[in-house]
Amino acid sequence: MLGNSLISARQFFILVTLFVIGDAVLYVPSLTATSARQDAWISALIGWGEGFLLTSLYAALSLRHPNRTILQYSEDILGKWAGKAVAFLFLSYFFIDASLMLMEIGDFVTTQIMQETPIEIILVLFAAIIVMGTRCGMEPLARVSELLFPYFLLLFFTLIAFIAPQIKVDNLKPVLAHGMAPVFGGNFRYMGYLLESVVLIFLFPLVKQPRHAAKAYIMGILIANFFLTIITTVAVLVLGPNITVLLAYPSYTLAQKISVGNFFERIEVLMAVIWFITLFIKITVCYYATACGIAQTLRLTDYRRLTLPLAMIMVIVALATMPNRPYFDNFVSEIWMPYSLTYGLFLPVLLLVVGGLRKRLGK
Amino acid sequence: MKRKAVFVLAAVLLLLTTGCWNRRELNDLAIVMAVGIDKVDGEYLLSTQIVNPGGVAASKDGAGGTQSAVATYSMRSADIFEGIRRLTTMTPRRLYFSHIQVLVLGEQVAREGTKEVLDLLFRDHEVRPDFYVILAKDTSALHILSMLDPLEKIPATKLYKSLETGEKAWGSVISIQLDEFITQLLSEGSEPVLVGVTVKGKVQTGSNGNNPQQESVSTLLKYEDIGVFKEDKLQGWFNEKESIGFSYITDRLDSTVEAIPCDKNSKLIIEIIHSKSTLDGRVVNGKPQVEVKIEAEGNVGEVACAIDLAKSQTIYKLEREVEKRIKEKIQNVITKAQKQFHSDAFGFGQVIYQNDPKGWEKVKHNWNEAFADLKVKINVDVKLRRTGKVGNSFIPFIKKD
Questions:
Q1: CATH at residue A162
Q2: How far does the CA of residue B182 sit from the closest CA of chain A (Å)?
Q3: Range of the structural domain that residue B295 is part of
Q4: CB spacing of B354 vs A174 below 8 angstroms
């Protein structure tokens, strides 16, 4: 069903890392700083603990049901109909996540780089790559992520190293002037991004050694948190909390500000490759999970037939999700986190508890 | 069959998706190097300086010299964006803003308020955040942009470069980029400042294209004074000495010189090669207090009198003298900001907020009054290290008849 492809724990680790960095690298600095101001980095630091707990939960759930996807064992646990309902809820989440991110890439390109290009063109082109990737199956995709990871590292650390001279340490002061409440406000939005890592639970049965996969899951999210904490801290250090909050894409502005010796500058489009890489991995994983999941739940023989029609729907949904930018900002900062909480925390806990109870009662 | 279909599809895609949707070729662009904004009769006068590539490139037979390297277009309009678009009725090419080096604000705009002017340049995607904002002092931005310099063909580049060199070597010039200005506008307990640029000499002759060829230049652009704002409105100017004091306080100073009188009519010049300022602010018993600590290092740069530089004692005495000078400059600029402009241009309020956020809560509501009576403690510590290639000056040893 899943194309019988298998991925290694190392590949899974890289997939998790790139997935969690995903679109967060673009939005997290301004979203956390909106409420936490100069303490945004603390909001991100708290995320390390949350990421650890969440992935431990997902790993525990997966280890109880070896070689079955979350859609399959929700049917095992909750019965056929309730299970199928939960499976479709999960699928809707995977799909909406994929569409939203596709829209994000379109919005980024049309806001910052090519303003007059119709967003549909960018969406269709990007969707085409995603469909091609998905049709190849998970094994080649995992290898692609392995290949792209060094480039991601190189670009990310280039960005940080060359913007570092413009750091003003005073921008972080005062620390915790307004108590922890605003910090948790910033963390609230940050956690919305961590909760999305529930999508990766779908790939868990593909990993050759489940024990190592659990470790890779947890390590992956911690390393992703490391990158997100760095970009958040550096954005506030360089731009200051006031400007970081106002910008639509603070990471891109950081890249625009790079200027070393009056000749190493204007490299922001190169830096944008960072999130083209991470967003490609994230959308493709979401999309793969949707297509495969639908095939699994409806007992189709091959998920590949779904990829093209689904992509058409994805482009339309992407266009429909954002009538305008304030609508989207409001959605991301207010609605996304509680919405993700349903799938990232509530449903997995439900499956774990009901599954545990059933096992005990069954004995 | 399938292979062929894929091949045909690829070929079709190759034809259809080449290039960019909204491509703009280099020869269709008017590259804007500088933007000037003035206010005339309630309307904005927008000036853009566009580079003329043919005039910039130096050709071997000297033909390039006949063309002017830039063209400055200006347009009156009620809004900035409208003005930019309306300018296309005058320019043969579409304006391209990614290479702006300076934004010049006319004094009138600065006095009436800058906030409406700046939003577009902060918002538009084509404008990058790395240009400097300067003020046209006692003149209009259009005049500033019309001045030609003998060394730089493009006035915008001249403005950009002399800003950077002036800041490094003299200290009365400060370079402020747009986002820094906006940060100052937004942060509590701090007011923005911008450096002023003015025209020296008769205005009429400067804009003449022949100016660069003349041997002695009668008009030049000169950075002069720092404009102090209150919110987004210009209040007044720090003169040159005060500006250097301002740079000392805000840690913008790299290098400058300090003159010390050493006998009746001659001076001794100290070159400051490094200066570091540390600010600390707290609220003690409901009263805000700020401490400015300057650590500077210098060399003896020029001696025009008989003074025994071979002794360490002399050096220590000189150090005290320089400290006194610097302290005076700092005290003067603070007093002027407090008494004349009532504007916390140094960001002392921000310093208090950063070091004592709880105390700041108590004083922030009437910070304007509190700033006017603020007690600032100034500590200056100067270390003189070297005396240049020689010890004592040769001047006292000149043979007398």
A1: 1.20.1740.10
A2: 8
A3: 241-401
A4: yes
Domain membership flag for residue B13: no
The rounded distance, in Å, linking the Cα atoms of B263 and B265 is 6
Q: Could you tell me if residue A361 is inside a domain?
A: no
Residue of B nearest to A169 (CA): B354
CB contact under 8 A, B22 and A118: no
Other CB atoms closer than 10 Å to residue A17's CB: what's the count?
A: 26
ipTM of this predicted complex? 0.85
Q: Within this chain, do residues B190 and B261 fall inside the same structural domain, yes or no?
A: no
Domain assignment present for residue B313? The answer is yes
**A363 inside domain:** no
> Which residue range forms the structural domain that includes residue A55?
9-356
A1 located within any domain: no
Q: What is the reported pTM?
A: 0.90
Q: Which residue of B has its CA nearest to A247?
A: B123
Give residue A49's identity as a one-letter amino acid code. G
Per the domain annotation, does B12 fall within a domain?
no
Out of B238, B262, B283, pick the residue that ends a domain: B238
Please indicate if any CB of chain A lies within 8 Å of the CB of B21.
yes
pLDDT tens-place string over residues A27-76: 999 999 999 999 999 999 999 999 999 999 999 999 998 888 999 999 98
Instruction: Give the distance from residue B308's alpha carbon to the nearest chain A alpha carbon, in angstroms.
Output: 42
Question: Which CATH number covers residue B255?
Answer: 3.30.300.210
Contact residues on chain A for B182, CB-CB shorter than 8 A: 242-243
Quickly count: other Cβ atoms within 10 Å of residue A120's Cβ: 13
Residue B26 is predicted with a pLDDT of 81
In a domain, B143, yes or no: yes
Q: Which of A111, A112, A114 sits opposite B22 (nearest CB)?
A: A114
Contact A118 B21 (CB under 8 A): yes
Q: Is the peptide bond preceding residue A174 cis, with omega within 30 degrees of 0? A: yes
Q: Mean pLDDT over residues A169-184, rounded?
A: 90
> Is the bond leading into A118 cis (omega within 30 degrees of zero)?
no
Q: Tell if the CB–CB gap between A243 and B355 is shorter than 8 Å.
A: no
What residue type is assigned to position A10 of the chain?
Answer: R
Instruction: Note whether B154 and B276 are same-domain residues.
Output: no
The total domain count for chain A is 1
d(CA A163, CA A22): 21
| pLDDT tens-digit series, residues B39-51 | 988 899 999 999 8
Cα gap A336→A28, rounded to integer Å: 13
How many CB atoms sit inside 10 A of residue B250's CB?
16
